[in-house]
Amino acid sequence: MVVYSPHKIILFGEHAVVYGYPALSATVDLFAKIYLIPSRSGLQHTPFVQKALGYLGLSNTYVKVETTVPSGSGLGTSSMIISGILLNGRDYSKENLARDSFNIEYETQGLGSPIDTTTIAAGGFVLTNGNEGMPLWSIEKNGTKWNFSSIPTKNIDLVIVYSGSKGSTKEQVAKIRKFYERGKYAKDIMERIGNITEEGVKWVMKGDLVKVGELMDENHSELKIFGISTDQIEKIVSIGREYGYGAKLTGAGGGGAVVIIPREKEKLVQRLKEMNVLYFDTSTTGAGIFKRSE
Ligand code: MEV
Q1: What domains appear along the chain, each with residue ranges and CATH number?
Q2: pLDDT band at 59 (very low <50, low <70, confident <90, very high)
Q3: Is residue 179 within 8 Å of residue 7, measured between CB atoms?
């Protein structure tokens, strides 16, 4: 059995979503293949892999992950692997897969929202805590509630660029929590990001990439205030703005990837080649995680 698990981007609202503000995410047409292979004992697994295998009552199992996307790129790798292991071992409804995967992620990370695990399970554009779309499910943890809905819309072309350094979700989320607990300043930023998402989803549904791009730029500027961008992310974002409708860091930041909606794709790709960076010429996809026998 092989599970095809999609990477995801957050178009609007990362970090703010941890506190229950709206966010818009989507699966992208980049899938990892995840296999469970019986193996000798004594394998060393990362804690979340260990936990996911434990959920299935499996030991002596090697988890093989085939993807061209580096881990720590903010594109959902850990959620994809957790969900990939679970779905490989058992049959699941999308909702239960999202719930169990989030629980495992939360138990190992101790923080964060269910946005990645839900997006990967549902597929397509997913709105968290907004008013549009068709309701999917709700997940609650420690007094924060996330209501998810599916946004029916055309796929959007994307160029995703790896900044060359990994970002740690745990570190970045913990850093922003300190800001958040200290006072109103961080809350105001979260609020503005929430408003950007609410406006952004409307333009995504209308297919107005100019407006979507402008709001991505605004969202990036808000995230920068938290100190989670890097020099390399800024370089990529400025090239993205030159040849795209908009560009922003996606995921936790502190490294990781930049998402660009291309306007002049050939020129953009040419510049990225000159910079010698890893990029993915891709698009959003309506598909979520699925499995196949091989
Ligand atoms: C990570 O993809 C998105 C963050 O908002 C963290 C989370 O929601 O768990 C940074």
Answers
A1: 2-154 (3.30.230.10), 157-283 (3.30.70.890)
A2: confident
A3: no
